[in-house]
């Protein structure tokens, strides 16, 4: 029986094709087995919590697909937020790819295509066939707490260029997903934590936020993820994810998007606090969504399936609507390359753990390093490095608290004294830094999202009063200059990742001359 034909699916199987479920653990557990077997769930989303190594990920995905083919007869979409940079679920063994703003800062568009192409090849060989990337949000708001360097730039033109090149590369092998429609760049609230509101007029959105999405649609992007944002001139008070005016009338009707509409995670507080993730599953389905991301909690996943089935019985959802949503999923799944269960990890290892690809990723991070203000550092023999321990700024992040840079500095530049501080230094911690810094000729301070953790800006101002040779290195969002005039020497590295940390070491040792170009404007 051809299960890609809608007529051959039971109602339960149709509902299962809508749900993209996450699970906990690094092996197939009873929960995910039950979801596929009993609820016919047709799609999986993976997080860093599911991944130990490339080989383990390969075996996990292979087993998940085997269960799906036995129980449903249709392959799973196995998706992942592999944006590169600060949102990288696969970190060890395979390539640690650079993030969006890092790539754009090289000022070399070819790198965007190369990264997309190589990332897509690694993912498909690991058994991942959908990437929830790239970001098409235009980060024109320096206070944005969730996008920042996940965006390519602060103009629609640059974002469109780099995002389209990445999409083209990814879609050589897998499904790319443009996110977060209609645009999450000009917000000051993280939708993981609350419901952002954008008050721009429709005309303003057309000139700015919509442009990268229209461009990606014209270039053939296969999936678009919705944003949990209230656009007051579009959505009449509800988030875009739940708005028929946005998903059906605008995205499908006016913009002509024929691909898959994927929701952002429905457990995010922007949705769950105001509507409940289960009820929202029905609302977004009626609004126009195809794939409902329910990433974390089994009761929400089973609850959503049961709620949709109940809605068919009550007339809140028509079979015609359900069929339209599922038929589109099946149409795109037909395009997936058939799974060969005889392939072993040894067969793909050379493609996944590829030294040339890793070298390219490192090269891009080096070429992105941008001298935004002042002079390149000439490291003093009497210098203090004040380094901020990274912290996950948002639930989307995977970096939290590691002191990778400290370890590398101690090994490579042993004479350089180091003082580690928290991402939000207290007054007492700042006083400790100031007192210690008085004994040095040169002070290097690595900031980490000073736009979000503004006590770092206070520390910059305090350090500047010492009249030392002060150098600020931005190891994530490069917006410190928006908040203080005290910085004389400012270099952006755009991310706190192993490759970027290596670039920091080379810069401090005088082995790397910054050649990057900031893809954002400074006023």
From TrEMBL:
SUPFAM superfamilies: (Trans)glycosidases. It comes from the Bacteria. Residues 11-331 form the Glycoside hydrolase family 3 N-terminal domain. GO terms for biological process: carbohydrate metabolic process; peptidoglycan turnover. The keyword Hydrolase applies. GO terms for molecular function: hydrolase activity, hydrolyzing O-glycosyl compounds. InterPro entries: GH, Glyco_hydro_3_C_sf, Glyco_hydro_3_N, Glyco_hydro_3_N_sf, NagZ_Beta-hexosaminidase. It holds the Pfam family Glyco_hydro_3. Keywords: Glycosidase, Hydrolase. Belongs to the glycosyl hydrolase 3 family. PANTHER family: BETA-HEXOSAMINIDASE-RELATED, GLYCOSIDE HYDROLASE FAMILY 3 DOMAIN PROTEIN. This is Beta-hexosaminidase. The gene is ybbD_2.
């Amino acid at each position: 029986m051809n299960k890609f034909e809608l007529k051959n699916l039971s109602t339960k199987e149709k509902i299962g094709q809508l749900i993209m479920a996450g699970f906990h653990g690094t092996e197939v557990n009873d929960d995910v087995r039950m979801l596929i077997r009993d609820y016919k769930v047709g799609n999986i989303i993976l997080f860093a919590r599911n991944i130990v190594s490339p080989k383990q990920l390969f075996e996990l995905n292979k087993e998940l697909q085997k269960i799906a083919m036995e129980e449903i007869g249709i392959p799973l979409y196995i998706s992942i937020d592999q944006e590169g940079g600060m949102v990288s679920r696969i970190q060890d063994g395979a390539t640690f790819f650079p993030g969006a703003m890092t790539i754009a800062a090289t000022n070399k568009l070819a790198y965007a295509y190369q990264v997309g192409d190589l990332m897509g090849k690694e993912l498909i060989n690991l058994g991942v066939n959908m990437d929830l990337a790239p970001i098409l949000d235009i980060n024109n708001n320096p206070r944005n707490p969730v996008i920042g360097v996940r965006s390519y730039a602060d103009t629609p033109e640059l974002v469109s260029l780099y995002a389209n090149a990445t999409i083209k590369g990814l879609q050589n092998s897998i499904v790319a997903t443009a996110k977060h429609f209609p645009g999450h760049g000009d917000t000051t609230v993280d939708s993981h934590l609350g419901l952002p509101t954008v008050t721009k007029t429709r005309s303003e959105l057309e000139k700015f936020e919509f442009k990268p999405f229209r461009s990606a649609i014209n270039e053939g992007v296969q999936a678009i993820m919705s944003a949990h944002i209230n656009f007051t001139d579009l959505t009449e008070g509800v988030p875009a994810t739940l708005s028929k005016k946005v998903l059906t009338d605008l995205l499908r009707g006016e913009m002509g998007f024929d691909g898959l509409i994927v929701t952002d995670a429905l457990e995010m507080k922007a949705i769950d606090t105001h509507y409940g993730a289960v009820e929202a599953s029905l609302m977004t389905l009626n609004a126009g969504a195809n794939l409902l991301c329910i990433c974390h909690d089994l009761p929400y996943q089973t609850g959503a399936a049961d709620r949709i089935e109940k809605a068919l019985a009550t007339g809140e959802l028509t079979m015609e609507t359900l069929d339209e949503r599922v038929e589109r999923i099946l149409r795109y799944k037909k395009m997936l390359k058939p799974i060969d269960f005889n392939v072993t990890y040894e067969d793909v290892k050379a493609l996944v753990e590829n030294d040339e690809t890793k070298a390219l990723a490192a090269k891009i991070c080096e070429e992105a390093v941008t001298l935004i203000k002042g002079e390149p550092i000439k490291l003093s023999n009497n210098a203090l490095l004040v380094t901020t321990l990274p912290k996950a700024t948002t639930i989307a992040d995977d970096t939290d608290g590691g002191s990778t840079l400290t370890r590398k500095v101690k090994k490579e530049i042993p004479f350089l004294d180091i003082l580690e501080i928290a991402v939000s230094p207290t007054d007492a911690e700042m006083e400790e830094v100031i007192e210690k810094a008085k004994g040095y000729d040169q002070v290097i301070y690595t900031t980490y999202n000073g736009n979000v953790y503004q006590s770092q800006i206070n520390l910059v101002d305090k350090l500047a009063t010492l009249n030392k040779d002060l150098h600020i290195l931005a190891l994530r969002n490069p917006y410190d200059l928006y908040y203080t005039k005290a910085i004389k020497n400012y270099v952006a590295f755009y991310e706190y990742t192993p490759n970027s940390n290596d670039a920091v070491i080379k810069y401090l040792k005088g082995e790397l001359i910054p050649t990057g170009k900031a893809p954002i404007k400074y006023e």
